[in-house]
Design brief:
The protein has a 7-stranded mixed sheet with strand order 3-2-1-4-5-7-6, sandwiched between helices. By secondary structure, it is an alpha/beta fold. It starts with a helix and ends in a 12-residue tail after the last strand. The chain is globular. The structure holds S-adenosylmethionine. S-adenosylmethionine binds next to α1, α4 and β2.
């Protein structure tokens, strides 16, 4: 089975119960997602357009939507099952949300946005797919727009990576994760292709991002991103 198809099948299978163990499986849940939301540099009343890449069941989109009540949010995900759960989450307010099944490694990204966000998705892409995606994200951002990725990063040495894994297992067990949810998460993690934070910061800069920074980090969980350059000549640049 091709990797994209394996990831799609794995998340389609998990969609119905995906949300259940999130706080256990992401031990730093509040700081991790909270930092991603508070790093969106617009006023809370701004009618910003936001793209959520690998949006899954809409966890991050939901938090962005509550923090920015005038925002319109586009969710894309490879898995129809995950998008269906997101659609149910946002029933009743679908005028603010646009949901699409899409592989973000293929073709251009749709639309134009003040902010592109992502959580726990881009680590499924290999190094060259991440580099390409960062370039595509840059092209759909408005001048001065921001890209925020809350994701798992690879330790910069095998020893550091082993410590991340040990810390994660210790923390999820301390939070009482069920054996079933842990086994399912470990199964999904077989498809992971995390890259180091330093590699990804370099790829963001290579794509044109400025003020590239890590905004939060706890072991292998990091929130990082950058800004699209403001065009001083007053004309929108990029894609
Ligand atoms: C661990 S879930 C995270 C979902 C959500 N962002 C969250 O924070 O709960 C990863 C999601 O990324 C999606 N995904 C993986 N590769 C993708 C790709 N190439 N294009 C679009 N979505 C992808 C999966 O289908 C899955 O829904």
């Amino acid at each position: 089975m091709k990797t994209g198809a394996a990831i799609k099948a794995s998340f389609d299978g998990a969609a119905a119960v995906y949300d259940r163990a999130r706080r256990q499986l992401v031990p730093c849940f509040d700081d991790f997602y909270g930092t991603a939301v508070e790093s969106i540099p617009y006023g809370r009343d701004a009618a910003i357009r936001v793209l959520d890449l690998g949006a899954g069941t809409g966890l991050l989109s939901d938090m962005v939507a509550r923090a920015f009540p005038q925002a319109s949010i586009s969710l894309v995900d490879l898995s129809p099952g995950m998008i269906e759960v997101a659609r149910r989450r946002f029933t009743g307010e679908l005028s603010r949300f646009d949901l699409s099944v899409m592989d973000c490694t293929r073709g251009p990204l749709p639309g134009r946005y003040e902010a592109v966000v992502s959580a726990l998705s881009i680590h499924h892409l290999d190094a060259s797919e991440k580099r390409n995606l960062f370039r595509k994200v840059y092209s759909v951002l408005c001048d001065g727009g921001v890209f925020i990725n809350a994701d798992q990063v690879l330790g910069s040495t095998p020893e550091i990576e082993a410590r991340y894994r040990e810390a994660w297992l210790r923390q999820v067990r301390a939070r009482g994760v069920s054996e079933g949810d842990l086994v399912a998460a470990l199964g999904r993690m077989k498809e992971d292709k995390p890259s180091t934070l330093d590699e990804q910061k370099a790829w963001l800069e290579e794509a044109g991002f400025e003020q590239v920074d890590c905004l939060y980090k706890s072991h292998g969980f990091a929130v990082y991103g950058g800004y699209k350059r403001v065009n001083r000549h007053g004309k929108e640049s990029g894609g």
